[in-house]
Write a structure and sequence with these properties.
alpha/beta; 41% helix; globular; binds 1,3-dihydroxyacetonephosphate; binds iron/sulfur cluster
Amino acid sequence: MTATRDEIIPLAGIACETNTGITTLPLSSEPSFAYWQQDIPSEYWDLDAQQLVEHVAIAREKLGSRLVVLGHHYQREDIIQFADFRGDSFKLAQWAAGQPDSDYIVFCGVHFMAEAADILSAPHQTVMLPNMAAGCSMADMADPDDVYAAWEELEEAGVADQVIPVTYMNSAASLKAFCGRHGGIVCTSSNAAAVMKWAFERGQKVLFFPDQHLGRNTGAKMGIPLDQMTLWNYNKPYGSLGGMTLEELERSRVLLWQGHCSVHQRFTVDQINAARQKYPGIHVMVHPECRYDVVQAADSNGSTEFIVRTITEAPAGSKFAVGTEINLVSRLAHENPHKTVFCLDPVVCPCSTMYRIHPAYLAWTVEELAAGRVVNRVSVDEETAHYAKIALDRMLTVV
Ligand code: 13P
Ligand code: SF4
């Protein structure tokens, strides 16, 4: 079956193509429009799945070891089949920092991951993202100007020198650079607790952005009471401390940016209760981007790599209800036929931005490359990369 461009790109977050046909995405799966993608030649949309596989395979053979394809765990099956290396955002960043052999890295993931790969990879390596419109709606919730303005307010309130800025990997390179400049650090969901400990060894408060849930869940894991973690609402006017009072600011140890992931915010405690009722003794495992009450109710939580490892290493007969993106859960169910693995939310949608990496874009990217043309290069300017690398290098050493 071939697909038209409009079926594949979830325009306004409504429709996308799945392996089984067209599906409807809930509006909560907010699309990211931060980056612009040029139209690719229409011939690509006339190719069926098998033809696209052949196009990618032929181009890759021409490029040999000069090209490496990286795939995040949320990529759909027809993309992950091409990945030389797959992982969570931490593992993929580690890979980019330590493998200078290839000339080209095609990153099948989202924009902030490709930016991190560009910053961490060797200078001669070129990073490409098959579809530039593959952003992250959570990352877009931390607009750099809003974060800079919040910092200015903290300076005016006389507390900025006690605050360590911590940005989640899901953020623009300029925010990673901001952290590098201000004694801060980047974290991923696999090392957030270690990073927060690192930050509290250097300051009394943490400004955590963009994901309030990962920030709150991590703070709670470290024993910080909920009333010492306060939301910074970036929609509030300048000068209002993100909506908190001076007393709240004084009392707070973690200032939580009011961002979230639309995919993970959909999971609920009711879904966990329903899974436990249906399968007594089932292990409920969720990503720490889920809400606090969901993480508290689950049996375990961790990054996508943690989820993959836990299920893969479990004995046959194990049962898991998983609260994370559906492409990963479906793959785990398929790869572990002697275990029960299902998604907590029966109508969960894929991450609509990860989903924008369609094989037609991948085929176009690698065929252009095989013809000597680099398309969709993700390149961070030198100064931003310099400071962002400081924060990313700190992240890589804190595990
Ligand atoms: P991981 O670092 O766990 O892969 O998470 C990235 C992400 O975007 C989850 O929504
Ligand atoms: Fe961003 Fe959520 Fe998609 Fe992860 S799942 S890339 S946080 S929108």
